[in-house]
Design brief:
By secondary structure, the chain is mostly helical. The chain is built from 3 helices and 2 strands. Strands 1-2 form a two-stranded antiparallel ribbon. Helix 1 packs across helix 3. The longest helix has 15 residues. The N and C termini lie far apart (about 45 Å). The model has no long low-confidence stretch (mean pLDDT about 90).
Length: about 80
C-alpha cells in the first residue's frame, strides 16, 4: 500500500513553502478547512478534478500526524 504522506510535498517555490498536495497549488490547510466545513470527499472530487481520493486521505493523515504530541503544557499567561 502506498504511503499517503508521500503525496504531501513542501517546496519553498510553491505556496510559500506550505505543505501542498503532490506539488500542486493546493495547500493542505485549505483542503482540511473544506473537509472541516462539512464537504465530503465526493464533493471535493467533483470540484477539483485533478485531485484523487488518496490526496484527500493524505491530507487527513498529515493532520493526524501533526496532532500526535507527546505532552501539552500550559503556558503562563
Amino acid at each position: 500500500m502506498e504511503n499517503l504522506l508521500t503525496r504531501i510535498t513542501i517546496d519553498p517555490e510553491i505556496c510559500h513553502g506550505k505543505p501542498t498536495i503532490r506539488g500542486l497549488r493546493y495547500p493542505v490547510e485549505n483542503i482540511l478547512e473544506l473537509l472541516a466545513s462539512g464537504m465530503t470527499i465526493e464533493e471535493l472530487l467533483e470540484d477539483f478534478s485533478d485531485l484523487e481520493r488518496k490526496d484527500f486521505l493524505a491530507c487527513l493523515s498529515y493532520a493526524s500526524k501533526l496532532a500526535h504530541v507527546k505532552s501539552i503544557h500550559k503556558i503562563a499567561s
